Amino acid sequence: xxxxxxxxxxxxxxxxLTKVSDEDxxxxxxxxxxxxxxxxxxxxxIPLVLKYPGIVHSNDTFVYKYMEKIYKPLYETVMxxxxxxxxxxxxxxxxxxxxxxxxxxxxSNWQYGPSSKTLHEMLSFDYKWYFTNVCKEYFFKNLYNVExxxxxxxxxxxxxxxxxxxxxxxxxxYPIYDKIIDGLELKNYIKVTHPSATRYLRTEEFMALKDKIxxxxx
Length: 218
What we know:
Layout: H1 4-12, H2 22-31, E1 35-37, H3 42-51, E2 55-57, H4 60-75, E3 83-86, E4 91-95, H5 114-122, E5 129-133, H6 146-162, E6 168-171, H7 175-184, E7 189-192, H8 203-216
Parallel strand pairs: 1-2, 2-3, 4-5, 4-6, 6-7
Antiparallel strand pairs: 3-5
């Protein structure tokens, strides 16, 4: 049975950094570097993967390889490490960098804020998501930082090589995505509107975007 503290966290989770309780901040800090075995309860799989700050898995051997080859050497000390479902069937979500906020406390990426809420709405039909960014530190005031992108490029290449052949969804449109696609000779990927820009979409356009992602993930 899934731990009661985790159930409480994922079902009370909200999307306003200014309202995150000290208790929830402590939960994130204590769990963003932990692994958790995916439970059988269907009603908690999706919210767990979408909102848990650490790693969820269903194969001890595969997640061990991931932790040893990718997480520990590359991302154990960064502000916002990857999170989500680590599996051979994971669908990889790639953003450019964690969002900047004066209220950030080192939370795991895509946990809080309006963009996080929108992203979770876009992905609410499945539990197989693995979330990462090109850069694991935010751009100050969200201003694109070329030097940080250059610094993290070798790491994101190694990370995506680990998930070789799996489906990848790129959020937004950045030149570095094309470099990654060309460098890894990716075939199974799509680019979609970044969640922060969906506010400019009409309702029917947003639903079409959600359907596009769902169709890609079949």
